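A reminder from the course coordinator: this example appears on the midterm review sheet, so study it carefully.

Given structure:
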């Protein structure tokens, strides 16, 4: 008979969290890259933008309409 192991899972992190427009990679936001920004929280804040990623072995690499907001394997094109 198969056995299962149960493990408590913590709540999902708030990916949007506090916005940091200087580090944001959202392409269509006028505040992206701005040092002086009034934003506290942002639904479009992106730490990863597949269009600007140099991770060639990822299926979403170069995708303009990627659903990814944050990615541990994100490598900027200029890196």
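Designed residues:
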């Amino acid at each position: 008979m198969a056995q299962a192991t149960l493990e408590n899972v913590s709540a999902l992190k708030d990916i949007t969290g506090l916005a940091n427009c200087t580090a944001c990679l959202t392409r269509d936001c006028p505040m992206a890259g701005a040092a002086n920004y009034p934003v506290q929280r942002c639904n479009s804040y992106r730490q990863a933008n597949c269009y600007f990623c140099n991770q060639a072995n990822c299926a979403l690499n170069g995708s303009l309409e990627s659903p990814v907001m944050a990615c541990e394997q994100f490598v900027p094109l200029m890196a």
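Residues 9-16 have pLDDT under 50 and may be disordered. The chain has no helices and no strands.
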